[in-house]
Amino acid sequence: MKRKVIIVGAGVSGINAAVHLAKAGIEVQLFEAKKNIGGRFFSFTDPTTGNIIDNGQHIFIGAYNNFFDLLRNLNTFNFVKAQSNFEINYFDDKGSAKLATNLSSGKLPLALALLTFRKLDFKSKVSIIKMILKIHKIHIPAEISCQDFLFQNGQTNLAIKYFWEPLILATLNQSVEKSPASLFVEVIKIMFKSVHNAKIYFSTVPLIRLLEPVDDFLKTYNSDIYTNTEIVKLDVSKKIITNCIDKMGDIFSADAFILALPFDRLAKIFNNSGINDDFKSFFNFSPIISFYFWSKSKIDCSEINAMIGTKSHWLFNLSEISNAVNPKYYLYTITISNALEMNNMSHSEISQMIIDELTYLGLISKSTDIIHSRLIFDKKATVSIDINNFDKRLPIETAYDNLFICGDWVNTSLPATLESAALSGRLAAEKVINYFKSS
Ligand SMILES: Cc1cc2nc3c(=O)[nH]c(=O)nc-3n(C[C@H](O)[C@H](O)[C@H](O)COP(=O)(O)OP(=O)(O)OC[C@H]3O[C@@H](n4cnc5c(N)ncnc54)[C@H](O)[C@@H]3O)c2cc1C
Predict the structure, then answer these.
(1) With a 6 A CB cut-off, is 58 part of the ligand 1 pocket?
(2) Who has the most CB within 10 Å: 14, 126, 167, 364?
(3) Ligand 1 atom with minimal separation from the 246 CA
(4) Is the CB of 380 under 6 A from ligand 1?
(5) How many domains does the chain have?
């Protein structure tokens, strides 16, 4: 019997669930509230320069198996490029130094990179290498923060400031003091398992182009995407969902449902449908600020640059990374993770702060070099996972036999990233297939 599944939310998690189900021969209807797909992974045209920019710099690592499989399914993996050599340039008030190695040579590339890294003393380098080597054997007591964990495992202040903190901010979008050590250790285990896993990848095209082919892909499998369709409620009968209803009052029925939504949007639909939404009280959002700036002058920096001792965390050189930049300018973007403390600052205050920091670190000589800039403050960039709520992430199954959830924030044991989103989408699709087999 032909089965139909409704998926609500066309971000990476919902799209991956749709792709897996369609490939399994199951008809999918994918509903998206906005006029565009992609969710928090999207691009738009900057009206002043005509450049297509993203909602924030996204980087991937070699361990993103599920996300990369999605791109392979959509034939867009060739738009993603790996850094040829592992290289991060660190800028502080004393100048710059590279953490770099040729990944194709040497048995212990990270150790080699660390040994030649000028920002760390010998003791700090050894402490990092030792911890990575014994990471599989370290016991983590429940509810311990990364800060306590790192000190307990002999990490120096310097090692934390230059090595661990930038990594924690980038992967967990959370402070060292609040990040749960168990989640971070998972990341380290995965990242440093192999050279392949630790490789850094970028999109060479606007992000949305990586997902765009999904429309045609689904059509070839007798499935479809419906944009501008906001689902507001589910009809519940005993332990089964029978229909979902959109904002216009239209009713859609299916044999199973996947809600691929951030926690607040899921809670809203649950609340409207008389389903318990208590989980929402455990979670908050962690903001990310992205500051794109077009410059007349070239900045002497690498593709990826860590900024140390400033509120700005990362500087990405988009003129090097992307093929989509207008060659008339140099385009860069700054990322500030876990930007909660800037919630009450205006856009112009934040922009000025970033420009001052770029000048302070000697990255730009004068603010007039900047022809144009654009600040994006995403207050709901990711869920904020900390030591108090890391075990409250919801599972993919719900109390309803034919209702499943996915999204970067559900319990995948990974931080709320693209890989967590893609993995949760695949797992939700597999649960639906198993449900159909058993019912
Ligand atoms: C600035 C920024 C930088 C980031 N950098 C990185 C990075 O470098 N690496 C990394 O791995 N991750 C990064 N992330 C995180 C990554 O973007 C997310 O983990 C991922 O996109 C989440 O996908 P999702 O499908 O779980 O959720 P979403 O993308 O939020 O998708 C949910 C979708 O559901 C739709 N929706 C909501 N309500 C309804 C409704 N009622 N009916 C129908 N549709 C609805 C929404 O419009 C949306 O399209 C970053 C995020 C941001 C914001």
Answers:
(1) yes
(2) 14
(3) 42
(4) no
(5) 3
Q: Are residues 136 and 275 both part of a single domain?
A: no
C-beta of 103 in contact with ligand 1 (< 6 A): no
Point out the ligand 1 atom lying closest to the alpha carbon of residue 54.
Answer: 1
Of 42, 58, 316, which is best to mutate to test ligand 1, by the most ligand atoms within 8 angstroms of its C-beta?
58
Is 264 a pocket residue for ligand 1 (Cβ < 6 Å)? no
Residues in the chain: 439
The last residue of one of the domains, among 165, 197, 229, is: 197
DSSP character string of 135-155: GGG----TT-BHHHHHHHTT-
Q: How far is the CA of 39 from the centre of ligand 1 (A)?
A: 4
Ligand 1 atom closest to Cα of residue 407: 26
- Atom number in ligand 1 closest to CA 288: 1
Residue 287 CB less than 6 A away from ligand 1: no
228 and 164 part of one domain: no
Residue 86 lies in a domain: no
Are residues 433 and 310 part of one domain?
Answer: no
Taking a C-beta distance cutoff of 8 angstroms, is the pair 378, 350 a contact? no
Tokens 């509230």 correspond to what residue? 33
Residue 51 is assigned to a structural domain of this protein: no
Residue 385 beta carbon below 6 angstroms from any ligand 1 atom:
no
Show the domain range for 250.
Answer: 4-37+212-283+386-438
**In this structure, are 178 and 128 located in the same domain?**
yes
CATH number, domain with residue 14? 3.50.50.60
Look at residue 80 and tell me if it is in a domain: no
Instruction: Please report the atom of ligand 1 found closest to the CA of residue 9.
Output: 34
Contacts 24+ apart (CB under 8 A), 314-318: 314/57, 314/166, 314/170, 315/91, 315/358, 315/363, 316/57, 318/57, 318/292
Q: Which of 363, 383, 403 is the last residue of a domain?
A: 383
Q: How far apart are the C-alpha atoms of 336 and 357, rounded to whole Å?
A: 12
Amino acid in the structure at residue 237? S
Return per-residue pLDDT of the chain as tens, 439 residues: 789 999 999 999 999 999 999 999 999 999 999 999 999 999 999 999 889 999 999 999 999 999 999 999 999 999 999 988 889 999 999 999 999 887 655 446 778 889 899 999 999 999 999 999 898 888 887 789 999 999 999 999 999 999 999 999 999 999 999 999 999 999 999 988 888 888 899 999 999 999 999 999 999 999 999 999 999 999 999 899 999 999 999 999 999 999 999 999 999 999 999 999 999 999 999 999 999 999 989 999 999 999 999 999 999 999 999 887 778 889 999 999 999 999 999 999 999 999 999 999 999 987 678 999 999 999 999 999 999 999 999 999 999 999 999 999 999 999 999 999 999 999 999 999 999 999 8
* Other Cβ atoms within 10 Å of 299 Cβ, number: 18
177/265 same-domain check: no
For ligand 1, is residue 381 a contact (CB within 6 Å)?
yes
